[in-house]
Design goal:
This protein is an alpha/beta fold. It is built from twelve helices and eleven strands. The strands form three sheets. The protein has a seven-stranded mixed β-sheet, with helices on both faces. It starts with 18 loop residues before the first helix and ends in a 5-residue tail after the last helix.
Amino acid sequence: MNPKPSIVNLPVYKPGKPVEEVKKELGLNEVIKLASNENPYGSSPSAKAAIISELDNLSIYPDGSAAELTSALAAHLGVNSDNIIFGCGSDEIIALIARAFFLPGDETIMADQTFSVYKSNADIEGAVTIEVPLAAGTHDLEAMLSKVTDRTKVIWVCNPNNPTGTIVSADALTTFLDSVPNQVMVVLDEAYSEYVTDLTYSDGIKLLERYPNLVVLRTFSKIYGLAALRIGYGVARPEIIKLINQVREPFNTSRVAQAGALAALGDQDYVQECRRLNAAGILQLQAEFKRLGLESFPAHGNFIMVDVRKSALDVFESLLRKGVIVRAGHRLYPTYIRVTVGSAEQNKAFVEALEQILTEQGVRA
């Protein structure tokens, strides 16, 4: 069989190592996973109750249009139902955008260190990826704009950016959007937006009326704590949503996922508490990094990227043996690890393990 040429050398996405695998490989009883930006506090009690209730309906197909959830989310966001599309995580919306809009040879612009799924889906469709270097870990919007040609179809802006955790301000974003040609789609990935406390950050949903070429992505995987259910969404003008819908599979989100997301959406007190705890966790980790003499990028999601001043892969392996899973292997940041903000106890355990490793390896006197 002959595969599409565009996928022959396509790398396979590597998620954070599972806790069960690490326990088995290393013979550990306790393992802390701080690798996949999951909510350490889980989902809200109301979401769990809704999920359990839905188990009696596993023999019934889900509502392909997710009508009840769509209506509730539209009211929450202040948009109309025809502005929303749901997917199997926001990852699927990225894939659907690529499927709907890319032709071989089209160009797409993104940062050189950002969420890898943008590039992999562009590659699958035969699009040409133009990667623009980050500036101090942040999207260089002016440089990205300079790369726009008559072949540019989509520009991807991850805000906060994964893996660096930085944001572009509202002023910078609107200046950029004002200059992007109307025929070029801008996908604003706000998977971590609910965690941001910085007042200069912009709410992409509020920009949709002003910019018809804008698509905003969000998810229930992060602050809502429903990563296992794989449910995310895109918000855009109805004409864009209609086109994306035309390439969507009919039952791409499950009954359980829809029920859990609906209940989670209704518990905004829980969301705000998770936001508060995460902000406290960021301060906790930043203070410890400062004490250890380590520099980190500003953190606006639920993770921090920190320079451990030696091979990040070596530190990753050493942490793994101590029962702490983080992320490393970022091609442009070989001495940086990305660590999810955990509970206060998890953060303390991580810092203790990291300090011991760095002391043993001579990074810290």
